[in-house]
Design brief:
Layout: H1 4-7, E1 14-18, E2 24-28, H2 49-54, H3 68-79, H4 85-96, H5 100-109, H6 111-118, H7 122-128, H8 130-133, E3 140-143, H9 150-155, E4 164-168, H10 184-196, E5 205-211, H11 217-220, H12 235-252, E6 257-261, H13 265-275, E7 281-283, H14 284-304, E8 313-316, H15 320-335, H16 340-345, E9 347-350, H17 387-394, E10 398-401, H18 411-418, E11 425-428, H19 440-446, E12 452-455, E13 462-464, E14 467-469, E15 472-473, H20 480-490, H21 497-514, H22 526-543, H23 557-567
Parallel strand pairs: 3-5, 4-5, 4-6, 6-7, 8-9, 8-10, 10-11, 11-12, 12-15
Antiparallel strand pairs: 1-2, 13-14
Helix pairs in contact: 3-5, 4-5, 4-7, 7-10, 10-20, 14-15, 14-21, 17-18, 20-22, 21-22, 22-23
This protein binds oxaloacetate ion and magnesium ion.
Magnesium ion is lined by residues 261-262, 284-285.
Length: 586
């Protein structure tokens, strides 16, 4: 007996085909009312007369036929009436769950205004309130309830050709820690950026929550919390869970890339190393943040007329982001001519206790950046070196914050950096806004407007002494969409460290060329930056021998960039055609 599954491509709701003239059209496998309930298919009042008649929609939709542009304008007028950021987030997420093309058309038309709502900082709030704002399913939740049936669970996803997955275990969401099931919100938010800034079609994206439990007793005790109510799996049990997810994913989506997101400390490094050669994958907080910070610091040095190799860099925070940034900077310093040893000697990393020193007891992933207190050229009292002492002792010219600790960069610390250089480079990068190490306005005030400042979450430009200082957003959003898109287009079987490093230099070069006075491009230019990052990532994948997509090697640089542009998904409603009874193309 043939089941429906044998005949239809698994659970997808439609196919995209081309007519004889090469124009794309969509062939839905559902009709009538169902079309208005599947977000990737629903066009609202933009279904044409012919589509309504052919697809069983007559009488179900308001009579007027609108264009996508009209709908965008109408929705925007509704949107601006919503006051609270979280309500705006819910407004946009509701739209996404109702009419996905319209959501992306609206977002694309107002990137700068809406990114802080679908992404940081408001996504932080949405994650914290996730169980309360939860309405309809989106993405995949694998929990301790169903991980033993992972393959069947993945088969339920109504998408057949997923290329990019953002997966989190929610153990360290942004700077706000363990969020349990709510972390699904960050995976959803990141993937919106993949679409609007990275050119990946929404039907190619899958947000994933690995619900292994939570260590937050308040969540476990909360009857309204929608995740599994037990403590987190650890050790071998935890890894067995992630193994099953990876295996099932490989089988269902052999071409998919996995972006690991917001895993805490050791888990972040363990998971990345365990799977990066099994499935093309990268960790956004270690590698994406590393690359975006390297790019911003290269630009800051360019603006100062100095070189990276001449800087002394203090990184405050030794989680996935802090160590990832340190690693990217080590590679950048080496590309600028230093030996590995010389590069390490210029990098000073602090965790909650203070400067990483070899004679302290340290987690394995921190050890590579610990200094030997015997050879350190500034004195080590019989206590841990704090931030101020390290900045002074190390002669820091650059200060980077990935600690999640609001206000960690006080006036004394920032002034101490300026004692070492007229134009200190200060990047308080923790997200969301409430966890930022210092307010840009304060940093500029304390340094008489001389500091070069970038943050992780968006800040308004600062007016000081008659000058306007735009605040660059040093957020991995400038890296991951282009890195992932490039890896997809290359058919990369692995995402190498060199591809990530190349993404950083691509972003630095793009900013220097297109926005020479800035540390990062304006957010409205995210798509432009992503195209450049993607093209250079493909080139590096070819150099590294990991690109499997045929024919790319023959393209010169402009042609490669053109290829990326041509593949960039843009929100528009495709014409629909009812499937022909004989299954042939119409
Ligand atoms: O999501 C963001 O805004 C950047 C990021 O990865 C984090 O802070 O964990
Ligand atoms: Mg993150």
């Amino acid at each position: 007996m043939t089941t429906t599954e044998d005949r239809l491509p698994l659970t997808a709701h439609y196919d995209v085909r081309r007519d004889a003239a090469g124009h794309r059209y969509l062939e839905p496998f559902v009709r009538g009312f169902d079309l208005t309930r599947i977000p990737l298919l629903n066009k609202g009042t933009a279904f044409t007369e012919e589509e309504r008649e052919a697809l069983g929609l007559d009488g179900l939709i308001a009579p007027q036929v609108d264009s996508l542009e009209t709908l965008v304008d109408r929705l925007y007028r509704d949107y601006v009436r919503v006051q609270e950021p979280l309500d705006k987030h819910v407004f946009l997420r509701d739209l996404q769950d109702r009419n996905e093309v319209l959501f992306y058309a609206l977002l694309a038309a107002h990137v700068e205004e809406m990114l802080p709502v679908v992404y940081t900082p408001t996504v932080g709030l949405a994650v914290q309130q996730f169980s309360r704002i939860y309405r309809v399913p989106r993405g995949l939740v694998l929990s301790t309830r169903d991980i033993d049936r992972a393959e069947g669970t993945l088969a339920n996803v109504p998408l057949n050709d997923v290329r990019i997955i953002v997966a989190t275990d929610s153990s360290a969401i942004l700077g706000i820690g363990d969020q349990g099931f709510g972390g699904l919100g960050i995976s959803i938010g990141k993937l919106s950026l993949y679409v609007v800034a990275g050119g990946v079609g929404p039907d190619k994206t899958l947000p994933v929550e690995l619900d292994v439990g939570t260590n937050r007793q308040d969540l476990i005790d909360d009857p309204d919390y929608l995740g599994v109510h037990h403590r987190r799996l650890t050790g071998d049990e935890y890894l067995a869970f992630v193994d099953r997810f990876v295996e099932a994913t490989r089988r269902r989506y052999p071409k998919a890339i996995i972006q690991w997101e917001d895993f805490s400390r050791d888990a972040a490094f363990t998971v990345l190393e365990r799977y990066r050669k099994v499935v093309p994958s990268f960790n956004d907080d270690i590698q994406g943040t590393g690359a975006v910070v390297l790019a911003g610091l290269l630009n800051a040095c360019r603006l100062k007329g100095e070189r990276l190799r001449d800087q002394r860099i203090v990184v405050h925070g030794a989680g996935a982001g802090g160590i990832g940034v340190t690693d990217a900077l080590r590679r950048g310093l080496m590309r600028d001519g230093l030996s590995d040893e010389e590069a390490r000697a210029r990098l000073f990393v602090l965790d909650q206790t203070g400067l990483l020193l070899r004679d302290r007891e340290l987690d394995g992933y921190k050890r590579p950046y610990a200094h030997d207190s015997a050879t350190l050229d500034f004195t080590y009292a019989d206590r841990a070196l704090g931030l101020l002492e390290t900045v002074q002792g190390a002669g820091a010219t650059i200060l980077v914050g990935l600690s999640g600790v609001a206000g960690a960069f006080g006036e004394d610390v920032v002034r101490a950096v300026q004692a070492n250089t007229r134009q200190p480079i200060v990047f308080p990068l923790s997200n969301p806004t409430a966890h930022c190490e210092a307010l840009p306005e304060d940093v500029l005030r304390w340094t008489n407007g001389e500091a070069l400042v970038a943050t992780g979450s968006p800040f308004h430009p600062v007016e000081l002494g008659g000058r306007t200082h735009p605040i660059g957003q040093g957020n991995n959003a400038f890296i991951f969409p282009g890195l992932g898109f490039g890896a997809i287009l290359a058919g990369a079987r692995e995402i190498t460290d060199e591809m990530v490093l190349e993404a950083a230099y691509a972003l630095a070069d793009y900013t220097g060329r297109e926005h020479p006075e800035r540390l990062y491009p304006p957010v409205a230019d995210l798509p432009g930056a992503s195209v450049e990052v993607a093209a250079r990532v493909i080139r590096q994948a070819l150099r590294d021998g990991v690109a499997q997509e045929p024919g790319l090697g023959e393209l010169d640089d402009p042609a490669l960039t053109e290829r990326v542009r041509a593949k960039f998904w843009r929100p528009k409603y495709l014409p629909f055609r009812a499937p022909r009874a004989d299954g042939a193309r119409s």
